[in-house]
Design goal:
Radius of gyration: 33 Å
Distance between the termini: 28 Å
Low-confidence stretches: 66-78
Number of helices: 14
Structural class: alpha+beta
Shape: elongated
Helix content: 40-55%
Mean pLDDT: 83
Order of helices and strands: HHEHEEEEEHEEHEEEHEEHHHEHHHHH
Length: 431
Amino acid sequence: MFLRMVRGTFHRQWKKMLMIALTVALGASIATAMLNVMLGVGDKINEELKTYGSNITVVPQSEAVISKLYELDEDVRADYLKEESVNELLMIFWANNIVDFAPETDTTVTLDGSEVRLIGSWFNHHLEFVRKGTTYQRDTGLVNLRSWWDIKSGKWLDEQELSGTDYCMIGETLANENKLSAGDRILVRGEHGTKELEIVGIFESGDDEDKCIFTTLPAAQELTDTGGLIKKIEVSAITSPDDELAVKAAKNPSLLTGDEYDLWYCTAYVSSICFQIQEAVPEAAASAVRQIADSEGKILEKTQLLMSLITLMSLIGATLGISNLVTSGVMERSQELALLKAVGAKNGQITRLVLTETILTAVVGAVAGYFMGYAFAQIIGQTVFNSSIEMNGMVAFLVAVLIVLVTLVGSIPAIRLVLRLRPSEVLHGGH
């Protein structure tokens, strides 16, 4: 009898049930899309921010101490790191989160009678080394760390294509001042000799680097007589936003309890990655580029808040839609429900009937909405982040719980109407 009545309702009010299913599907699809993106957006945002440069700088310990005590200029250097210490970046716990890095050494050279800053680094460098029988390889350098550079003429310097090391790229301001073009050769004089460099490309960075010369690391080391040594390492790593634990650890990791330390060490906070780099390179001091590191957390928080609000508003809209549709359906069936009461049906039985019909309809809509939402998440991922969004199993559970709550809350006005129905009034044309 109960199932026959449910089938009868779907047969007679199929349009209204379809509208309920579509309302639920819309709410479920938006919730699914937003939750999937929200749970996966952290790494996506961090990957996007990696295009704006390094977020960790590794320098000699002595330089870090002197810089902090005396607030020395960026150009003042107290010591060097070994170039081979770059290999250690691939040996730390969070090595897979380090997406790009490049060693640097800089000096002041003379070009046509003017002093110019010259920076030696990797551009598109193939790093390969063997450690304990395992071969480690990585293509890295300024091509990715300076991806915002606008190449005005020529091309990127590529160590894997060019033979030799006597090549350079120069900033647009410097090129204009000296009337230089890609393909020209320049003679630079350093403290330890002179070197002729071929200009491979001219770039615009939008900052002081437009006045600099960027050359290969061996060429800069030759001009400074520092073979095998570097002055710093720029590192771009995917990190987790800082929270209270990260802030506490950044001040002094020794103040953490054992459990706190394990959690901090095994989470990709920028402070824990810096700490592990210093463990791997004892003579180095690693520090976060705070402007970028802080921006990651703020952007992620605001993005997640926006998506949470969109999800909340969509669920509120679905609740209101279900409330109107179910209440309207109960009003249309008021005589039928009043008759059930007149022949002995209790309020609880009629309530279960209405809820069963609504929940069954909501389940169909939720299933359809979940897959629609996953498709929406992929569109968002490809459009905004140029990558797919992974399906998170937790989202299916959360959406199921939310849809049940939305359906129950939306059915409350209809249930109240059922409870207030008086058979004598309804069946005799009363209100």
